[in-house]
Design a protein that fits this description.
- By secondary structure, this protein is an alpha/beta fold.
- It has two domains: 4-133 and 216-338, Rossmann fold, CATH 3.40.50.300; 142-201, Histone, subunit A.
- 53% of the residues lie in helices and 10% in strands.
- It has 15 helices and seven strands.
- It has helices at 10-19, 38-48, 74-79, 96-112, 124-132, 142-155, 157-167, 169-174, 180-193, 197-201, 223-240, 242-252, 267-274, 280-308, 321-331, and strands spanning 4-5, 26-31, 51-55, 82-83, 116-121, 212-219, 312-315.
- A seven-stranded parallel beta sheet has the order 1-7-6-2-5-3-4, with helices on both faces.
- α3 (74-79) links the parallel β3 (51-55) and β4.
- α6 (142-155) packs across α9, α7 (157-167) runs parallel beside α9 and α12 (242-252) packs across α13 (267-274).
- The chain is globular and about 60 Å long.
């Protein structure tokens, strides 16, 4: 395990972070589960260091999806530079490959301005894609997806899952029979390449990230307290008008419940409520449960990243978290131009 606790091994972690590719420009990664306080920490860092924030969030790329994605408000966006927010409409798609391309472009521009890219978010696939590279999968094919969706309407997704098992048993074992999005993608890849997606994913991947990355992980010391935060957060989203936000998107755009934007946590449950399939209490309960499941998946991804990379871990529940993170960054060699404002 490469992770270092800031309580016991801070000096060791500092030395290793400093030694990592000193000739490269720095970039700061803040990774953590939902409701861990990542965005607030990023704002604290932005107040003290010459950074620009790069969102690593697959939901914040969508315009008009503000409440359910906990997007920064307009005043914050005007005060502190943010990137990769509000890129596309809810009826459009956005891939990890697109994120990598966009993120590298933005990071290069930030660095050329003499500032530091601060990547913050909870989409661990995007972080892993930047660090490890991506398998070379074909781009989505709209016509083929329409055919697959048509078959699924006739047969049901469990039957499509069985079809997947026949051509790619390894992917089928990993994907739930109810996970229509991933079943569709695995079938699509197989049909486009005549190869199982699992075989393509096993191929060696490599990306040479031209940055010295300072990787900070926010994790809860008490999972139950994180769950309390999640419940409060989702209830606040409902009070702020999440249902109305989804209703407006449905009227404004040609979106369906299976589109990636409407599969985001909170939006999927609000969709069911607007379809009168669940009541308001069920919306709340299901939204909180789905957010907790998301946090669990994010923590699983984090453990994988922490096994492979040197990171510095902070307890996201600590009352002095902003001070501890900023104090740590002062000890890391991020260049003379990057000292406190």
């Amino acid at each position: 395990m490469f992770a270092k606790k800031t309580d016991d091994n801070l000096l060791d972690a500092v030395e290793k972070q400093n030694a990592q590719g000193n000739h490269l420009p720095p970039a700061i990664f803040i990774m953590g589960p939902t409701a861990s306080g990542k965005s607030q920490i990023a704002l604290e860092i932005a107040e003290q260091f010459p950074v620009e924030i790069v969102s690593v969030d697959s939901a914040q790329v969508y315009r008009f999806m503000d409440i359910g994605t906990a997007k920064p408000d307009q005043a914050t966006l005007a005060r502190i530079p943010h990137h990769l927010i509000n890129l596309i409409d809810p009826a459009e798609n956005y891939s990890a490959a697109q994120f990598c391309s966009d993120a590298l472009d933005v990071m290069r521009d930030i660095t050329q301005r003499g500032r530091i890219p601060l990547l913050v978010g909870g989409t661990m696939l995007y972080f892993q894609a930047l660090l490890d590279g991506l398998s070379v999968l074909p781009a989505a094919n709209g016509q083929l997806r329409t055919v697959i969706e048509s078959d699924a309407k006739k047969l049901g997704w469990p039957a499509m899952h069985e079809k997947l098992r026949e051509v790619d048993a390894e992917s089928a074992a990993r994907i739930k029979p109810t996970d229509s999005q991933r079943i569709q993608r695995a079938l699509e890849v197989c049909m486009l390449t005549s190869r199982p997606m699992s075989e393509i994913l096993r191929a060696p991947r490599k990306i040479d990230l031209p940055y010295r990355t300072i990787k900070l992980v926010l994790k809860p010391s008490d999972r139950s307290r994180l769950h309390q935060r999640i419940a409060i957060r989702f209830e606040n989203m409902l009070r702020q008008g999440l249902v109305d936000e989804v209703s407006l998107i449905r009227k404004k755009f040609a979106v369906g419940s299976e589109m990636p934007s409407m599969r985001c946590v909170g939006y999927r449950q609000a969709w069911l409520y607007l379809e009168k399939e669940i009541n308001l209490q069920e919306l709340s309960d299901m939204g909180v449960a789905a957010t907790r499941q998301l946090a669990k998946r994010q923590l699983t991804w984090l453990r994988s990243i922490m096994r492979k990379y040197e990171v510095v871990e902070f307890d996201c529940l600590g009352s002095d978290l902003p001070d501890r993170v900023c104090s740590f960054l002062l000890t890391v060699d991020i260049g003379k131009k990057a000292r406190m404002k």
